[in-house]
Amino acid sequence: MTRLIDLLLELKETSRAITKEEDDYLRRLGEEMARASNDAERWRILEREGLPSLEGFDLKPESREALLRLRRAAMN
Fold first, then answer.
1. Burial environment of residue 35 by CB neighbours within 10 A (0 to 12, 13 to 18, 19 or more)
2. Do the Cβ atoms of 44 and 71 come closer than 8 Å?
3. Which of 4, 28, 29, 42 is most buried by its number of CB atoms within 10 A?
4. DSSP 7
5. What confidence tens digit (pLDDT) does each residue in 19-40 have?
6. Residue 58: predicted pLDDT
7. Structure confidence by residue, pLDDT tens digits, 39-64
8. pTM
9. Is residue 4 within 8 Å of 32, Cβ to Cβ?
């Protein structure tokens, strides 16, 4: 089964188009994130999907800040 971290790492190593299965997975994950009732719950979803930290990813500053906000909320 696909996990977000596995997909991100694979795409980082080999630039390619995502498959239909990966697209469906990302859509379902996005819907789950949208249904989450708060930022802490969103971070727990990302942790479940294998995102232990933000290190090693070349994120845009606004993306990094959004993910840090989720992580901080989960710690409170």
1. exposed
2. no
3. 42
4. H
5. 999 999 999 999 999 999 999 8
6. 76
7. 989 989 998 998 877 677 777 888 88
8. 0.80
9. no
Distance CA 76, CA 40 (A): 8
Contact criterion met (CB below 8 Å) for 33 and 42: yes
Q: Which residues lie below 8 Å from residue 6, measured CB to CB, with a gap of 6+?
A: 50
Q: DSSP string covering the chain, please?
A: ---HHHHHHHHHHS--PPPHHHHHHHHHHHHHHHH-SSHHHHHHHHHHTT---STT----HHHHHHHHHHHHHHH-
Q: What tokens were used for 57?
A: 């990813």
- For helices 61-75 and 39-48, the axis angle rounded to 10 degrees is 100
Query: What one-letter code names the amino acid at 28?
Result: R
Provide the greatest CA pair distance for the chain: 38
